[in-house]
Write a structure and sequence with these properties.
- The strands form two sheets. The protein has a five-stranded parallel beta sheet with strand order 1-2-3-7-6, sandwiched between helices. Strands 4-5 form a two-stranded antiparallel ribbon.
- It starts with 13 loop residues before the first helix and ends with a helix.
- The longest helix is centred in the first third of the chain and has 22 residues.
- The N terminus is likely disordered.
- It has one domain: Rossmann fold.
- With 284 residues, the protein is of the alpha/beta class.
Length: 284
Amino acid sequence: MPSHPLLTESAPDVAAIARLAYRVRRQSLQMVHSAKVGHPGGDLSAADILASLYTSILRVDPRNPRMPDRDRFIMSKGHCSGSFYVALAEAGFFPLERLAEYMKPLSALSGHPDRNKIPGVEANTGALGHGLPIGVGAAKAAKITGAAWRTFVLTGDGELQEGSNWEAAMAASHFELDNLTVIVDRNRLQQGDGTESTMTLEPLADRWRAFGWSVAEIDGHDIAAIVRTLRGVPFEPGRPSCVIAHTHKGRGVSFMEDRVEWHHRIPTDQELAAALAELDANHE
């Protein structure tokens, strides 16, 4: 299967993936600041996962985005479109220069990804709770047709309060969709409060297991662990796989980390300068 030029089945280049995650964080912050709208906290928490997916996991070809046997990746937490767009551009789906269009009037790079406007986007998302049901349909279609491609879905943890996710989880287990993997960006914060204060999710791993899934828990900022775990799916034949990636909202910027207000707060000029300086210093 044709693949992204960086995709390899050999040992992952952790340093190269970390450099990509750094660029995802840096660029997405600049985009949100310029647009004066966005979700920087979640952009930063998902950066290592996205960088790992687009370098070492997904079998995709940016030269042929609708290649029939491509893997399907669904960014269910579509409000974190900034980091998703940077990952797509870095992978070669569209020129990096287009990132300057983020959130501009009539821009294809809107707040929620649109599959009709942006190459590499598999589903329109952002209305939370839709990505996994779509992923179940995609995985079931592959089973019906005997196709070898896989489906990966990245969800937020607050998003799991949507009941449609659990209906989808039940269906995925019933249909033995071991070609489906959900990754939970478990940063424990959502709009306005912590997830556990809003609606208790724990014991989250046991809940997924109760729905018939095979579950792994990892550090969602440990690139080697992310790649190793995602290369190991399915964890069990006949069962869909769930990866609970423990992350930090605002990862990489000390004054943003684990602060609920950065779910959608826009950095000031001074805060952006400080954030970029910290990212640069930690990257060197």
